From TrEMBL:
<protein>
    <submittedName>
        <fullName>MYC binding protein</fullName>
    </submittedName>
</protein>
<dbReference type="GO" id="GO:0003713">
    <property type="term" value="F:transcription coactivator activity"/>
</dbReference>
<keyword id="KW-0175">Coiled coil</keyword>
<comment type="similarity">
    <text>Belongs to the AMY1 family.</text>
</comment>
<dbReference type="GO" id="GO:0005634">
    <property type="term" value="C:nucleus"/>
</dbReference>
<dbReference type="InterPro" id="IPR026060">
    <property type="entry name" value="AMY1"/>
</dbReference>
<keyword id="KW-0539">Nucleus</keyword>
<feature type="coiled-coil region">
    <location>
        <begin position="62"/>
        <end position="89"/>
    </location>
</feature>
Length: 103
């Protein structure tokens, strides 16, 4: 009987761990969403994976994409500054409408 109580205690600890980590809520939400689907998907496991985010990109791929985004943001900032500089230089050579230049 002591063995049964020991394993029950471990089960209860594990259940509390899953509850604290939010796993039970996530699984419950996905299963409820699957239950409420009017047209059940042909592959329920794919449905669960998709709604849990398992089918997302790998961590290495994510890091590569983050680096690419950072690089592109830097490039965008550089091009924006260059655009501002070129516009200000262009305004020096364009006649304004009050100077009577060609329209």
């Amino acid at each position: 009987m002591a063995h049964y109580r020991g394993s029950e205690s471990k089960r209860e600890q594990f259940r509390r761990y899953l509850e604290k980590a939010g796993v039970l809520d996530s699984l419950t939400n996905v299963l409820v969403a699957l239950y409420e689907e009017t047209e059940k998907p042909t592959n329920a496991l794919d449905f669960v994976k998709q709604h849990l985010g398992v089918a997302g990109p790998e961590s290495g791929e994510t890091e590569t994409l983050r680096q690419e985004v950072a690089d592109l943001r830097g490039k965008c900032e550089k091009l924006t500054e260059e655009n501002k500089e070129l516009r200000s230089r262009l305004l020096q050579y364009e006649p304004t409408a009050t100077e009577g230049g060609p329209e």
